[in-house]
Amino acid sequence: MTLAPPGLVFSGTVRFGTNVLFGPLDVAVPAGQWCCLLGPSGVGKSTVLQCLAGIAGQARAGTDAQAPLTHDGAARADDGRPLHGRIALMAQSDMLLPWLTVSQNIMLGARLRGQRTGKAGRARAAALIAQVGLEGLDHRKPADLSGGQRQRVALARVLFEDRPVVLLDEPFSALDVATRARMQDLAAQSLAGRTVLQVTHDPAEAARLGHRIVVLTRGGMIEAAPPDAPTPRAPDAPQTLATTGRLTRMLLDLT
């Protein structure tokens, strides 16, 4: 990471045609912190990430040419510099190219930018493959992988990008409990000091990882206090369990 990570600012209202999807909303992610965004399905959590990544219009492209997605507000870095080129996005879909190997998919960003990864890049990709528990599978194609393995390849690709701002949309949702905990630990360690905004439906995950926890509702947002302990927090620590319970109750009350 060559530049200090900025904070993120998202504000305003998002509409699909004349219908308000959500907002007005104001979310700030402090520089160098991990913010977890929770909330019921359909309230716009993923759209917040898409707006920050500059792809919100593409996400709706082709659904209705007469009803484009519009965002009236700000989706920017707080240092005044463009976010373009400083963001790594892990979407809900793994977005692996089926004709590329695991290793090639991890290095895809550099390939699309016309950059040569060289021996050092290949070695780094191999190290990440081992870290996400896929050692020996570097030459496999996505069709030969399980859903959880594909998701770990997508995580490795985000880590390979080495960006100061990272947007994660349910990055561990396809993983079993033990693998999920290990990947949470890896991500927390690898992305320490970055600005991370993560969408999750898992209160326990937010309690483990979040420096800041925000619950998005159709009426706005609710700030929830994270445990007073360093991340990644032990899943069975009393503070982690208590926060998980509070978040779960909050989400139950919203539905």
Q: Report the span from N to C terminus.
A: 40 Å
CATH level-four homologous superfamily name of the domain at 8-86 and 163-254: P-loop containing nucleotide triphosphate hydrolases
The CATH architecture of the domain at 8-86 and 163-254 is 3-Layer(aba) Sandwich
- What is the percentage of strand-forming residues? 15-25%
Cα-based radius of gyration, to the nearest Å = 18 Å
What is the CATH fold-level name of the domain at 8-86 and 163-254? Rossmann fold
**What does the main sheet amount to?**
6 strands, mixed
Number of helices: 9
Give average pLDDT, whole number: 91
Tell the overall outline. Answer: globular
- Tell me the name of the CATH class of the domain at 8-86 and 163-254: Alpha Beta
Class based on secondary structure composition and strand pairing: alpha/beta
| Count of individual beta strands | 9
The unreliable regions are 59-66
Helix content: 25-40%
- What is the chain-wise order of helices and strands? EEEHHEEHHHHEHEHEEH
Characterization of the model:
- By secondary structure, the protein is of the alpha/beta class.
- The protein has a domain at 8-86 and 163-254: P-loop containing nucleotide triphosphate hydrolases (Rossmann fold, 3-Layer(aba) Sandwich), CATH 3.40.50.300.
- 36% of the residues lie in helices and 23% in strands.
- It has nine helices and nine strands.
- The protein has helices at residues 45-53, 56-60, 102-106, 108-112, 118-131, 147-161, 177-190, 203-209, 238-254; strands at 8-16, 19-29, 34-38, 69-77, 87-90, 165-169, 195-199, 212-217, 220-224.
- The strands form two sheets. A six-stranded mixed beta sheet has the order 5-6-7-3-8-9, sandwiched between helices.
- Helix 5 (118-131) crosses helix 6 (147-161) and helix 8 (203-209) packs across helix 9.
- The longest helix is centred in the last third of the chain and has 17 residues, at 238-254.
- The protein is globular and about 50 Å long.
